[in-house]
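Worked example 2:
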Amino acid sequence: MQSRWLSDIRLVAWTWVWSLALLGAWCIPANEVNLLDSRSVIGDLGWVAYPKNGWEEIGEVDEDYAPIHTYQVCRVMEQNQNNWLHTNWILTEGAQRVFIELKFTLRDCNSLPGGVGTCKETFNMYYYETDGDEEDNGEMRDGTGMMDEEDRVMKESRYIKIDTIAADESFTELDLGDRVMKLNTEVRDLGPLTQKGFYLAFQDLGACIALVSVRVFYKRCPLLVKSLAEFGATIPGSEASQLVEVVGRCVNNSLPLYEPPRMHCSTEGEWLVPIGKCVCQPGFEEINGSCQVCRVGFYRSLLESLVCSKCPPHSVARQAGATACSCEDGYYKIDSDPPNMACTRPPSAPRNAISNVNETSVFLEWSIPMETGGRKDVRYNILCRQVLPDGRGLEECGPNVRFLPRRLGLSNTSVMVADLQSHTNYSFLLEAVNGVSELAKDHTKQYVSLNVTTNQAAPSPVSVVRKGHTGKSSIALSWAEPDRPNGIILEYEIKYFEKEQDSSYTIIKSKETEMVVEGLKPSSVYIFQVRARTSAGYGTFSRRFEFQTSPYLTATSERAQASVVAVAITLALVLLAVVAGFLLSGRRCGYSKAKQDPEEEKMHFHNGHIKFPRVRTYIDPLTYEDPNQAVHEFAQEIDVSFISIERIIGAGEFGEVCSGPLRLPGKREMQVAIKTLKAGYTEQQRRDFLWEASIMGQFNHPNIIRLEGVVTKSKPVMIITEYMENGSLDTFLKKNDGQFTVIQLVGMLRGIASGMRYLSDMGYVHRDLAARNILVNSNLVCKVSDFGLSRVLEDDPEAAYTTRGGKIPIRWTAPEAIAYRKFTSASDVWSYGIVMWEVMSYGERPYWEMSNQDVIKAVEESYRLPGPMDCPEALYHLMMDCWQRDRNNRPKFDEIVCLLDKLIRNPSSLKKLVNSSHRVSNLLVEHASLDGDCSTLSQTVGEWLDSIKMGRYTELFMEGGYSSLETVAQMTSEDLRRVGVNLAGHQKKIITSIQEMRVHMNNTNSTVNI
């Protein structure tokens, strides 16, 4: 019966062997290397089986007469079976981990009658490591092919068990009848191996088994070419999680990019984690996994580029494999030009050059060249030459001539030349250059020339004023003649006033360089300034000099009291006159250039009634002894649980600026901006951080950034404001250059002016109004921000305001704020004019590349920014009014809002643009008034005085500086007495006419269609 079972199992085994052959089971994956495959051995396997009645080798041939080997055993009816089958010695080939694949069939013990007690359904697999084939030395068998019992036990003890192998499926008698094939496949891994080879052994303890095939293999990462790098076949490590790093070799004509290429071989024989790569070297390109040479007319210079590129314009590559193209004759490249940039040449001369002479200064302006040479780095150089007195030659201008912003390397198309000699002929050569001009040695330079003749200049400022003898009511002054008188000095004008009372000053004249000023108060500090006059006019006043009178030593109380009473009465009369003037004129939309108090007016007159200022005024948080009290008085405390931080949108001095939703109970969720105070702050930093919240919390206006609240009871400390989607105005305009209509831009300006009007009415001076401090929301609504910085002006004119947040450029600041630290709403108006210029130029930098010192000098010399491209003339006139030297002549914010409203209601008034000639003519004009075009008054001062029979005073008015009706309209009774109108009847007649003049001017300004 046992023989019949062997026949049964043999039938099943051979059925499987044939099936494997027909299914192509001989094919193995590329990452597996066979060390043993019983199916591929030709001839006997030569394995050792003992005892001899145990495992039996069955050899047959397939349809191609190739040998097929299988081993089987089926001694299930006998007890204490211990049948061993040993393989030959298997060389590992350096592998540290191998895999054993067994294919076998096994009989179900329950299907064997009478063999249940002794039958098994498992067998064991063992291995034994050694550095050599011990069978070659006859150690595994005796001369009869059998091992004695002692040797057998000794040899078996060397083997280490790998596993007990069980069948997933076993066959029965019925399977044989139906020829159902139930072949089992089991795979076990073995390692780490440390010696050159090993034996396998299979132990049967009483099962009915057919061992169809045994395959021993290891896995390796196969040869791979990837990203132009070759990685050789690699045997992985012994540990399951171990990766073996392999450095690849770049293929021919390729180089590593940044770092050598590397990959990692896993224990499964797979390439993982590629790092780095190879690229074709310059002059080659990758085609089908190899590097091919670039064709003629093409080049490749950078490793980062993938393919050869056609030579850019005006360049050629005459040989294959070019790494760069050569420029054609007359064209050039500099080292910093990228390889794909066309070769370029020097530009042609500038075009449309024009000049505007102002005494001893000249403003030059030109257009870009017709031919830029194909480059964007066009710069301009100015060559200044002075005509010799005899007219027969030219010489270069001296070192005293100043060019603003500079003479060489100009990026903008204009320059101001100052400190020229008067009544002198000059020739200016304007040259355009670019990056390759220095390389073009054979290129003839091209210029455009301008010839100008300067006028007589006013004298330069008096440099020093000295104090001589000092009395209780007088001070003796002396000074030196100006360094550059530019003509014969006719007289000097001395301006003085009591310190902190600069709105009420006195002017006296002297033909000498000394003067005793009388009528001063004892023990009082006075400010003195001196300027000279020639036939060309007055020069600028000297800097301010402070001198103090002597103490009042004798008691003359009655006369002093009488003087005080007299002064009080005079002041009261002046005040009544001013009030009467307002009542008569009736202020309307629009503004005049009448003198105004430096601070914002606190009362407004409408229809003869006094309107008192609003109750709410700004309160400086510094007045609180405890800064926390100010924060909690003006800002709402928000529970930190109501805030979610989603992303970081910027960084400030004190910490990060984030955005996220604010969810207050009973209110809709809203997006907010969140300023956080970084960890490790000092108490002073915390106060400074919350100071801005104390200021913002006092404001409530649609054009002022809204404070939602603060978080002070947990960390980090936060300031919560509304979220402005479009960020700062300057950046927003640069990103959207030319994308808005003029009406949209004017609407933005109107919103800013409205917010500043609100701040001015509250008595708050911003001090840092600039486009960078204006925020824009999704509806293009502009809101004023940045209220938290305290500013101290440095003495160095090259510096800017020193703030806790860094440097604030000086080019936004009014000249009196720079010179005298005098910040008012009028200085904010100057800054607003600069903001207007920024908006209309789409975020261009004011004064371009001029240094701070040059900006200060230029503004002092009446230089003003030219009108931006395509800027309406009405807006540029408003800018010029904001930049009036005298702060009292600048418009107020309520007047600015009113004028902008008129422009918005009448868009046709914005069609007239600032043309080039008008831009030049206005650059050096100190007083350019918006209502100058609106005025219908054409009389001179002399004609007006003659019309009221007061022509005798014409010369006195001229000497007093009242040379236009605009300045006359600002005169008071005190001004009349100062110029020499002492008769009461004449004063009354002139004052009455001045009041009528004011009414006429105001009505004209109110009704004019700008």
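The longest strand covers residues 208-219. The chain has a mean pLDDT of 81.
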